[in-house]
Amino acid sequence: MTVIWTIRPRHKLAKLLAYIRYPLNSSERKLFRGRLVEAIEFNGFQHRQFAGTKSVSHSGHPPNAKYGISVDGELPIFRDKRTPRISVIIPNYNHASFLRERIRSILDQEIELSELIILDDASTDDSRNVILEMTRDISVPVKLVFNEMNSGSIFRQWQKGFELAKGDLIWLCESDDTCDPRFLGTLVPYFSDPSVMMAFGRIDSIDREGIVVPQSGLSLSASKFWGAPIIASAYSWFNGPFGNKNIVANVGGCLFRRQEFSPDIFSELASYRICGDWYLYSRVARGGRIAYDPNAKAYFRVHTSNSSKASLKSESFYNEHVRIAQALRRHYEVNKSAIRLLLQNAWAICVANLGYAAGREFAQGGLIGEVMKTPRNINHILLILAACDEHVVSAACRLANTVSGRGEDVTVLLSGDAAFFDRARGFLSPSVSILPSIFAERMGLDLFLTEFGITMVWVSDHEIGGMGEACRSLRIPLHKSSFEGFDFSALGPEARAG
């Protein structure tokens, strides 16, 4: 029992309040204590200094998109006036009864779509006829892919959709879910900020008839934390709410930038049966920022044939939570508090669905300690670039793209005007996030490096005042290079050790 206790919530206040609320019911005490601990942790994320007024947007909508530096929550950011192309992907299997509503909810969006990709995985119901009927006379370009044999994995279907997509943003919509007509109109403007890699909205559960049902996920702290828009670094999200649980219950509740993924990432994604979406979110967010806006409403349908509901009775669900905890440690070096809550959430669900014997087996063996031994092996490299000659800009951006293509996270701080941003943006991959150097200066260099989880800094001739001192105090390697003729092999495994 001692080992089990290491996974359960340990906040003394939560424990005391649970005893007051449920003095005679130990099961209710444990669940109540878990909810309290989660609310405490979520609110702690919201009120930490780096997620306060200086890095949180409460406007609901970003300022009018335009090139140049604008102020977002008191911090300056670049704005891109280009209208992003949106690729919508619908993977489907035997959801004929929900497909009409799903497709209508997409076509009714206020923002124009660039393409609609529908992938049917050898459905045995009337799905194909419904798809052909619903797409026959629409103005949006459509790509239909009908499998003759079931792929055996929803995540393989996702991969196929990514490879077909040509847009700047990807909206991956499960075929049995739905959303509000203003969903895209609320989230797309956030991507005018080139540091935002992913954006998501409020997700409510609905039943088969589309009626909203109570949920125990986001509602745990909905009254405060989830009531207003927030933008924060991926590193802080995954060391906070996103490290505690998968807060985007259905992938259709988010948007993310289209980017090239290595075969290794797709291979890892396909190896999951349940938690692949959580893994995907951690990869698409990279080293950039994640935006949340409760005004973008999506609906996650819970019904008898829903795969998510059935997964709760599978041991794979709980084993994959351990894998996710290890993956988040490798990428974002997720802290012990978040890991503890992640495993505690999985343990509570395990007990509720499979009983205490299964929960005891899940928790045995010093699980938290083993997960915490997983070292970080994905760097977040900060490249600082000032306005300079075209060939230097090209070399620096090539370096950023190469490193990002190898699976590392890369953020570029640009010191220059709007024209310089325009020039650099044209060279950089969508997987590289961009911020003006003044963003880091206004936030405070130590705070910026910490919030974004920077592991290495590269500068050319221009160095932000105080960056050297900040790197030394945080023990972050700082390299100076002209970027021209740079030896890319220097960023091999030996560089990770730095």
From the helix content, strand content and strand pairing, which structural class follows?
Answer: alpha/beta
> Gap between N and C termini, in Å?
40 Å
Percentage of residues assigned to helices: 40-55%
What is the mean pLDDT?
82
Number of strands: 17
Rg calculated over all Cα atoms: 23 Å
Low-confidence stretches: 1-10, 42-71, 217-223, 492-498
**Total helical segments:** 22
Main sheet, how many strands, which sense, barrel?
Answer: 10 strands, mixed
| Shape estimate | globular
Q: What does this protein look like?
A:
- With 498 residues, the protein is an alpha/beta fold.
- 42% of the residues lie in helices and 19% in strands.
- The protein has 22 helices and 17 strands.
- It is globular.
Name its key features:
globular, disordered C terminus, five-stranded parallel sheet, alpha/beta, 498 residues, ten-stranded mixed sheet, disordered N terminus
Topology:
Elements: H1 2-5, H2 12-21, H3 26-47, E1 68-72, E2 75-79, E3 86-92, H4 96-107, E4 115-120, H5 127-135, E5 142-146, H6 154-164, E6 169-172, E7 178-179, H7 183-187, E8 196-206, E9 212-213, E10 230-233, H8 234-238, H9 241-244, E11 254-257, H10 263-270, H11 276-284, E12 289-301, H12 307-311, H13 315-332, H14 336-354, H15 356-363, H16 367-372, E13 380-386, H17 390-405, E14 409-415, H18 418-427, E15 433-436, H19 437-443, H20 445-451, E16 456-459, H21 467-474, E17 478-480, H22 493-496
Briefly characterize the structure.
The chain is α/β, with parallel strands linked by helices. The protein contains 22 helices and 17 strands. The chain has helices at about 1-5, 10-20, 25-45, 95-105, 125-135, 155-165, 185, 235-240, 240-245, 265-270, 275-285, 305-310, 315-330, 335-355, 355-365, 365-370, 390-405, 420-425, 435-445, 445-450, 465-475, 495, and strands spanning about 70, 75-80, 85-90, 115-120, 140-145, 170, 180, 195-205, 210-215, 230-235, 255, 290-300, 380-385, 410-415, 435, 455-460, 480.
